[in-house]
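One thing: can you check what follows?
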Amino acid sequence: SLMLAKAKEEWEQEIVDKQAEKERYLAERITPLHTSGLSLSQLQDLCRELHEKVEIVDEERYDIEAKCNHNTREIKDLKIKVLDLRGKFKRPPLRRVRVSADAMLRALLGSKHKVSMDLRANLKSVKKEDTEKERPVEVGDWRKNVEAMSGMEGRKKMFDAAKSPTGQ
């Protein structure tokens, strides 16, 4: 809290110093205008001079702003080039950690975790004998079917088989 109070005091002092510096600079650069007792033509000349000065300052401001924008774009391009030259970030190899579901829930929920989860207890057991009985026993020679359908004979048989139901 003492450091914050000290920082706040310094910040307020800095604001006051900046304001005083601004006022001093403006007092140096700006001469006071005396418009009382001037004729219409003299006031018009004064306005023209002030307008010319404003145009000059505005042109300088525009040039400085354009340079600033150009430098900003250049800095951004250089940052992109630096990132490209560095290459991609290499991820370190991760080690496999075996954690049970109970340990994971305990880590996440803390003391709230009461129920133990044994995921393997809920799985169905499949007997190997059941899967062998369901498989069809009919096994033929696959080469006979391939030889029968290969070549023009096979295509002709398929064509004839397609024609015969139509009654021709």
The chain has six helices and no strands.
